Amino acid sequence: MTVQTDYALSKRTDVYAEAAYKHVGSTGNSGITADIIGVSASSTDSQIVGTVGIRHRF
Q1: C-alpha R_g of the chain
Q2: Global pTM?
Q3: By the 8 A CB rule, do 10 and 24 touch?
């Protein structure tokens, strides 16, 4: 599941926030862990990633 939002401060500048959550269920003893693309794999069956930033277009 991923949630994101964006807010314009001006015509060329905005701030943004994004959060992603992944849970792998019923893994038993298989060793399967959560893995969100772009970050290191989790050592457990759940993973949460957050990003906050400001963007300015030239």
Answers
A1: 16
A2: 0.71
A3: no
